[in-house]
Design brief:
Length: 281
Protein backbone atom coordinates (compact mmCIF):
# COMPACT_ATOMS: atom_id res chain seq x y z
CA UNK A 1 0.00 0.00 0.00
CA UNK A 2 1.30 3.45 -0.89
CA UNK A 3 1.09 6.58 1.22
CA UNK A 4 -1.70 7.98 -0.96
CA UNK A 5 -3.69 4.75 -0.90
CA UNK A 6 -3.49 4.58 2.89
CA UNK A 7 -4.57 8.21 3.24
CA UNK A 8 -7.54 7.67 0.93
CA UNK A 9 -8.77 4.40 2.43
CA UNK A 10 -8.36 5.52 6.04
CA UNK A 11 -10.03 8.87 5.34
CA UNK A 12 -13.07 6.97 4.06
CA UNK A 13 -12.99 4.63 7.06
CA UNK A 14 -12.76 7.50 9.56
CA UNK A 15 -15.61 9.26 7.77
CA UNK A 16 -17.86 6.23 8.26
CA UNK A 17 -16.90 6.12 11.93
CA UNK A 18 -17.84 9.75 12.51
CA UNK A 19 -14.32 11.10 13.01
CA UNK A 20 -14.21 14.85 12.39
CA UNK A 21 -11.65 16.01 9.81
CA UNK A 22 -10.82 12.42 8.82
CA UNK A 23 -8.12 13.26 6.28
CA UNK A 24 -6.30 15.53 8.73
CA UNK A 25 -6.39 12.82 11.40
CA UNK A 26 -4.78 10.12 9.30
CA UNK A 27 -2.20 12.57 7.99
CA UNK A 28 -1.15 13.34 11.56
CA UNK A 29 -1.04 9.67 12.52
CA UNK A 30 0.91 8.59 9.46
CA UNK A 31 3.39 11.45 9.67
CA UNK A 32 4.02 10.64 13.32
CA UNK A 33 4.49 6.94 12.55
CA UNK A 34 7.03 7.78 9.83
CA UNK A 35 8.80 10.47 11.88
CA UNK A 36 8.01 13.13 9.30
CA UNK A 37 6.21 16.45 9.11
CA UNK A 38 2.68 16.20 7.77
CA UNK A 39 3.49 18.37 4.73
CA UNK A 40 6.24 15.93 3.73
CA UNK A 41 3.66 13.23 3.03
CA UNK A 42 2.59 15.18 -0.06
CA UNK A 43 6.03 14.59 -1.56
CA UNK A 44 5.85 10.83 -1.00
CA UNK A 45 2.41 9.81 -2.24
CA UNK A 46 3.87 6.95 -4.30
CA UNK A 47 6.05 5.58 -1.52
CA UNK A 48 5.23 1.98 -0.59
CA UNK A 49 4.68 1.42 3.11
CA UNK A 50 6.29 -1.61 4.75
CA UNK A 51 4.56 -4.01 7.14
CA UNK A 52 6.82 -2.71 9.92
CA UNK A 53 5.53 0.83 9.33
CA UNK A 54 1.90 -0.22 9.06
CA UNK A 55 1.68 -2.50 12.11
CA UNK A 56 1.76 0.13 14.90
CA UNK A 57 -0.40 2.46 12.81
CA UNK A 58 -3.25 -0.05 12.57
CA UNK A 59 -3.82 -0.05 16.32
CA UNK A 60 -3.89 3.76 16.49
CA UNK A 61 -6.33 3.91 13.57
CA UNK A 62 -8.62 1.49 15.40
CA UNK A 63 -8.48 3.51 18.62
CA UNK A 64 -9.09 6.78 16.79
CA UNK A 65 -12.11 5.29 15.05
CA UNK A 66 -13.47 4.39 18.49
CA UNK A 67 -13.21 8.01 19.60
CA UNK A 68 -9.88 8.23 21.42
CA UNK A 69 -8.50 11.75 20.85
CA UNK A 70 -5.84 12.20 18.20
CA UNK A 71 -3.70 14.09 20.72
CA UNK A 72 -3.67 11.13 23.11
CA UNK A 73 -2.62 8.76 20.33
CA UNK A 74 0.20 11.05 19.27
CA UNK A 75 1.20 11.80 22.85
CA UNK A 76 1.87 15.43 22.00
CA UNK A 77 0.24 18.53 20.54
CA UNK A 78 1.34 22.00 19.50
CA UNK A 79 0.20 25.05 21.44
CA UNK A 80 1.36 28.58 20.66
CA UNK A 81 4.33 27.32 18.66
CA UNK A 82 5.55 24.76 21.22
CA UNK A 83 5.03 21.01 21.47
CA UNK A 84 3.50 19.78 24.73
CA UNK A 85 3.14 16.25 26.00
CA UNK A 86 -0.53 15.26 26.17
CA UNK A 87 -2.29 12.33 27.80
CA UNK A 88 -5.34 11.45 29.90
CA UNK A 89 -4.07 13.31 32.97
CA UNK A 90 -5.28 16.70 31.72
CA UNK A 91 -7.46 18.43 29.13
CA UNK A 92 -6.40 18.38 25.51
CA UNK A 93 -5.27 21.93 24.55
CA UNK A 94 -7.78 23.77 22.39
CA UNK A 95 -7.36 26.64 19.97
CA UNK A 96 -9.61 28.95 22.01
CA UNK A 97 -7.01 28.96 24.77
CA UNK A 98 -4.41 30.38 22.37
CA UNK A 99 -6.68 33.42 22.07
CA UNK A 100 -6.44 33.85 25.84
CA UNK A 101 -2.64 33.88 25.51
CA UNK A 102 -2.77 36.53 22.79
CA UNK A 103 -5.04 38.77 24.88
CA UNK A 104 -2.87 38.41 27.97
CA UNK A 105 0.37 39.18 26.13
CA UNK A 106 -1.16 42.48 25.02
CA UNK A 107 -2.22 43.20 28.59
CA UNK A 108 1.29 42.49 29.91
CA UNK A 109 2.73 44.99 27.45
CA UNK A 110 0.43 47.73 28.74
CA UNK A 111 1.50 47.40 32.39
CA UNK A 112 4.64 48.45 34.23
CA UNK A 113 7.53 46.14 35.06
CA UNK A 114 6.39 45.73 38.69
CA UNK A 115 3.16 43.95 37.67
CA UNK A 116 4.97 40.64 37.49
CA UNK A 117 3.20 38.01 39.65
CA UNK A 118 0.91 35.61 37.75
CA UNK A 119 -1.15 32.65 38.95
CA UNK A 120 -2.46 29.99 36.57
CA UNK A 121 -5.37 28.33 38.36
CA UNK A 122 -6.25 24.84 37.11
CA UNK A 123 -3.04 24.57 35.13
CA UNK A 124 -3.73 21.09 33.72
CA UNK A 125 -0.93 20.19 31.33
CA UNK A 126 0.72 23.53 32.11
CA UNK A 127 0.22 25.13 28.71
CA UNK A 128 -0.68 28.59 30.02
CA UNK A 129 1.88 28.81 32.83
CA UNK A 130 4.70 27.53 30.62
CA UNK A 131 3.78 29.71 27.66
CA UNK A 132 3.62 32.86 29.79
CA UNK A 133 6.87 32.01 31.57
CA UNK A 134 8.70 31.57 28.28
CA UNK A 135 7.08 34.48 26.45
CA UNK A 136 7.58 36.91 29.35
CA UNK A 137 10.72 35.97 31.34
CA UNK A 138 10.11 38.84 33.76
CA UNK A 139 7.00 37.15 35.16
CA UNK A 140 6.97 35.26 38.44
CA UNK A 141 4.62 32.39 37.61
CA UNK A 142 2.73 30.08 39.99
CA UNK A 143 0.71 27.17 38.64
CA UNK A 144 -1.82 25.26 40.73
CA UNK A 145 -4.16 22.35 40.24
CA UNK A 146 -6.32 20.18 42.47
CA UNK A 147 -5.17 17.11 40.50
CA UNK A 148 -1.76 15.65 41.35
CA UNK A 149 -1.84 13.75 38.05
CA UNK A 150 -2.27 16.98 36.08
CA UNK A 151 0.55 18.63 38.03
CA UNK A 152 2.80 15.69 37.17
CA UNK A 153 2.14 16.22 33.48
CA UNK A 154 2.64 19.99 33.83
CA UNK A 155 6.00 19.47 35.50
CA UNK A 156 7.06 17.09 32.73
CA UNK A 157 6.15 19.70 30.12
CA UNK A 158 8.01 22.42 32.00
CA UNK A 159 11.14 20.27 32.15
CA UNK A 160 10.81 19.29 28.49
CA UNK A 161 10.50 22.94 27.42
CA UNK A 162 13.15 24.32 29.74
CA UNK A 163 10.81 26.21 32.06
CA UNK A 164 11.10 24.23 35.29
CA UNK A 165 13.08 26.94 37.07
CA UNK A 166 10.60 29.61 36.02
CA UNK A 167 7.41 28.18 37.54
CA UNK A 168 6.32 27.24 41.06
CA UNK A 169 3.91 24.29 40.83
CA UNK A 170 1.58 23.76 43.81
CA UNK A 171 -1.14 21.28 44.67
CA UNK A 172 -4.03 23.51 45.70
CA UNK A 173 -7.79 23.91 45.62
CA UNK A 174 -7.93 27.13 43.62
CA UNK A 175 -5.79 29.81 45.33
CA UNK A 176 -5.99 28.37 48.86
CA UNK A 177 -2.31 27.38 49.10
CA UNK A 178 -0.89 30.50 47.44
CA UNK A 179 0.27 33.74 49.01
CA UNK A 180 -0.89 36.87 47.20
CA UNK A 181 -1.06 39.40 45.96
CA UNK A 182 -0.99 38.53 42.25
CA UNK A 183 -1.15 41.06 39.46
CA UNK A 184 -2.53 38.51 36.99
CA UNK A 185 -4.82 35.52 37.54
CA UNK A 186 -5.72 33.27 34.61
CA UNK A 187 -7.99 30.25 34.79
CA UNK A 188 -9.46 27.65 32.48
CA UNK A 189 -11.63 25.86 35.02
CA UNK A 190 -14.31 23.17 34.61
CA UNK A 191 -17.46 24.76 33.17
CA UNK A 192 -19.62 21.90 31.86
CA UNK A 193 -22.91 21.44 33.79
CA UNK A 194 -22.96 18.02 35.41
CA UNK A 195 -26.13 17.02 33.56
CA UNK A 196 -24.45 17.73 30.21
CA UNK A 197 -21.41 15.50 30.72
CA UNK A 198 -22.98 12.45 29.09
CA UNK A 199 -23.85 14.47 25.97
CA UNK A 200 -20.27 15.62 25.34
CA UNK A 201 -18.53 14.48 22.14
CA UNK A 202 -16.90 11.09 22.63
CA UNK A 203 -13.41 12.58 22.29
CA UNK A 204 -14.01 14.99 25.17
CA UNK A 205 -15.10 12.12 27.43
CA UNK A 206 -11.48 10.92 27.45
CA UNK A 207 -10.54 14.08 29.36
CA UNK A 208 -10.52 13.71 33.18
CA UNK A 209 -13.93 14.34 34.70
CA UNK A 210 -12.42 16.64 37.34
CA UNK A 211 -11.36 18.98 34.53
CA UNK A 212 -14.84 19.07 32.97
CA UNK A 213 -17.50 18.95 35.68
CA UNK A 214 -18.49 22.49 36.64
CA UNK A 215 -21.34 21.50 38.94
CA UNK A 216 -25.09 21.96 38.53
CA UNK A 217 -24.96 25.14 36.44
CA UNK A 218 -21.40 24.77 35.18
CA UNK A 219 -20.24 27.76 37.22
CA UNK A 220 -19.76 26.25 40.69
CA UNK A 221 -15.96 26.30 40.63
CA UNK A 222 -15.72 29.58 38.72
CA UNK A 223 -17.95 31.25 41.33
CA UNK A 224 -15.71 29.93 44.09
CA UNK A 225 -12.64 31.36 42.36
CA UNK A 226 -14.24 34.79 41.90
CA UNK A 227 -15.26 34.89 45.56
CA UNK A 228 -11.79 33.77 46.74
CA UNK A 229 -9.76 36.29 44.74
CA UNK A 230 -10.05 39.26 47.17
CA UNK A 231 -6.96 39.10 49.37
CA UNK A 232 -5.06 37.24 46.64
CA UNK A 233 -5.08 39.92 43.93
CA UNK A 234 -3.33 43.28 43.86
CA UNK A 235 -5.28 46.52 43.42
CA UNK A 236 -5.99 46.95 39.72
CA UNK A 237 -5.04 43.30 39.18
CA UNK A 238 -6.51 41.49 36.21
CA UNK A 239 -8.39 38.19 36.09
CA UNK A 240 -8.92 36.30 32.82
CA UNK A 241 -11.32 33.37 32.50
CA UNK A 242 -12.17 30.89 29.75
CA UNK A 243 -15.88 30.04 29.83
CA UNK A 244 -18.47 27.79 28.25
CA UNK A 245 -21.00 28.87 25.67
CA UNK A 246 -23.74 31.06 27.12
CA UNK A 247 -21.93 31.70 30.43
CA UNK A 248 -20.14 35.00 29.80
CA UNK A 249 -22.94 37.38 30.78
CA UNK A 250 -23.74 35.50 33.98
CA UNK A 251 -20.07 35.56 35.01
CA UNK A 252 -19.84 39.23 34.07
CA UNK A 253 -22.71 39.95 36.48
CA UNK A 254 -20.97 37.95 39.21
CA UNK A 255 -17.79 39.96 38.74
CA UNK A 256 -19.65 43.28 38.83
CA UNK A 257 -21.18 42.25 42.18
CA UNK A 258 -17.71 41.45 43.57
CA UNK A 259 -16.01 44.82 43.01
CA UNK A 260 -14.58 44.07 39.56
CA UNK A 261 -14.54 46.70 36.82
CA UNK A 262 -13.50 47.14 33.17
CA UNK A 263 -15.24 43.84 32.46
CA UNK A 264 -14.75 42.75 28.85
CA UNK A 265 -16.14 39.72 27.01
CA UNK A 266 -14.18 38.35 24.05
CA UNK A 267 -15.44 36.04 21.31
CA UNK A 268 -13.48 33.02 20.09
CA UNK A 269 -12.74 32.13 16.46
CA UNK A 270 -16.27 30.68 16.07
CA UNK A 271 -17.95 33.81 17.41
CA UNK A 272 -18.74 32.29 20.82
CA UNK A 273 -18.39 34.56 23.87
CA UNK A 274 -15.56 32.50 25.31
CA UNK A 275 -13.20 34.75 27.30
CA UNK A 276 -13.77 37.31 30.01
CA UNK A 277 -11.27 39.72 31.53
CA UNK A 278 -11.80 42.16 34.39
CA UNK A 279 -9.85 44.29 36.85
CA UNK A 280 -10.30 44.19 40.60
CA UNK A 281 -10.91 47.15 42.89
Amino acid sequence: MTVLELLQTTTAYFGKKGVEQPRLNIEHLLADALGKKRIELYLEFDRALSARELEPLREKVRRRAEGEPLQHLLGHWDFFGRTFRIDRRALVPRSETELLVEIMLKEFASQGEFANRLADVGTGSGILAITFALERPELEVSAVDVSEDALGLARENAEHLGASDRIAFRHSDLLNELEGPFHWIVANLPYVPTADLNALPREVKFDPAVALDGGKDGLTIIKRLIESVPGKIAPNGLIALELGQGQAQRVSDLLADQNYRDISIKKDYQGVERLLIARYG
